[in-house]
Design a protein that fits this description.
Rossmann fold, alpha/beta, binds NADPH dihydro-nicotinamide-adenine-dinucleotide phosphate, 15 helices, seven-stranded mixed beta sheet, six-stranded parallel beta sheet
Length: 401
Amino acid sequence: MSKILIVLYPDPVTGYPPEYARDTIPSINDYPGGATLPSPQALDFTPGELLGCVSGGLGLRDWLESEGHTVVVTSDKEGPDSVFERELPDADIVISQPFWPAYLTPERIEKARNLKLVVTAGIGSDHTDLDAANARGITVAEVTYSNSISVAEHTVMQVLVLVRDFVKQHEISAAGGWNIADAVERSYDLEGMRVGVFAAGRIGRAVIERLAPFGVHLSYTDRFRLSEDYERKYNLTYHDSIESLVQNIDVLTVHAPLTAETRGLLNTELLNTMPRGAYIVNPARAAIADRDAIVQALESGQLAGYAGDVWDPQPAPVDHPWRTMPHNAMTPHTSGTSLSGQARYAAGTREILEDWFAGNDIRPEYLIVEGGSYKGVGATSYAKVPTKADEGQAELSQATS
Ligand code: NDP
C-alpha cells in the first residue's frame, strides 16, 4: 500500500462545492491529431465539478482509500512546518498541479526517501527537478494534452483583451461611468495585425488555428519547421529565430517550455527590437520573460500590453510588480484549470495511477522521466538540447581529458 501526498489549491472562500453555472460540460471525443482522451477504468466524479482544490481532491480520495492507500490532500506547501514538508519523507507518490506547484527541489527529493512516482495533474513538470528525479530513478508523468485547448482559448482571449483594451472598458462600466473617449483611447481591432507565435507545439498550433479566422498575418518560430502544407493552410511565415520573429510583429504569443535556452529570453535587449506598442501574451512559464524588463517596457510604452497566466514564484507575492504594472491583463494561473480542463486532467491522473498500481506501462505520451532518463513525451519536450555553451564546454573537456 502506498502513501499518496496530493497538493492542490485551496477551496473557494465561499465554500465547497460552489454553485455551478452549468449542469454539464460538453463531451470531447479526441484531441487534435487523433491523440486519445484519458481512459481510466472508472471515475468517482461528475465532469464539470471543481476537482483541482483540496475538497475536490482530483476525485481520487474515495477510490485510493478503498484500495487501502493512505491519502493526504493539502494546500499547505511552503516552509519547513508545512504539511507538505512534514508528510514528504515517507510519501511514495506526490501529485500536484502547475497552478499550485509542490516544488520538488533536489533537497526535497533527497528528503523523500520513499518517493517513486511524481504526477503533474496537468501539463508542465518544471516544478520538479527532473535531473534529481533521474538521479534517483523516480518516474515523472503528466497528463499531456489535457488542458492544451483550454490554454489556447485563454491565449486568444488575452490577445483580444489587450488589443481591444477590454479591462479598462469593463471597469468604466462597472464603476457607473460612460466616458467613451476614455474607454477607447487605446482600443484597436485585431484584424490586420501581425501575430507571431513563439513555439508551435500543441498549444502554439491551436492558437494559430484559432487566430487565423481573425484576418491576421501569422508568423512563427520553433526548433523545427512545420510542414509546407500546414504553413500554406494558415498563410504562415517562418522565422529561424525569436530575434527575427519579434522585429516584424504587433502581437507575440509565447508557448515554449521553460528550459535553460528559454529562461529570461524576453529581456530588455529583445523587447527593444520589437515595434513600439507591441503586445505580449505569455501563458507559458513566467521565467521566459525577465520580470523587470516587462515592467519597464510597459512603463516606457515600448510594450502596449502584457498578459500572462503563470508567475514566478507561485503563488505570486501580493507586491509582485506584474499585479499592478500598467496595461496588464494577468490571470492567476487559471488558463489550464477551467472546469472542463479539470475533468480531463483528473481522469488522466487516475489513469496514470491505475497503470502504476497494476504494474502496467504508463502511456508514452504521459511519461516525462523513468528509470533514470527522459522517456516518452519528456524525451522531446524536456530533454536538454545542447547549447553552444555546452558544445564549447564539451570541446574543452575533450581537449583537457
Ligand atoms: P509542446 O511540447 O507541444 O510544444 C512546445 C514547443 O516548443 C515544441 O514545438 C518545441 O519544439 C518548442 N520549443 C522548445 N524549445 C524551444 C526553443 N528554444 N525555441 C523554439 N521552440 C522551442 O508543449 P505545449 O504546447 O503543450 O505547452 C507549451 C508550454 O506551455 C509548456 O511547456 C508549459 O510550460 C506551458 N503550459 C502552460 C499551461 C498553463 O496552465 N498556463 C498549461 C499547459 C502548458 P520541439 O518539438 O523541437 O521540442
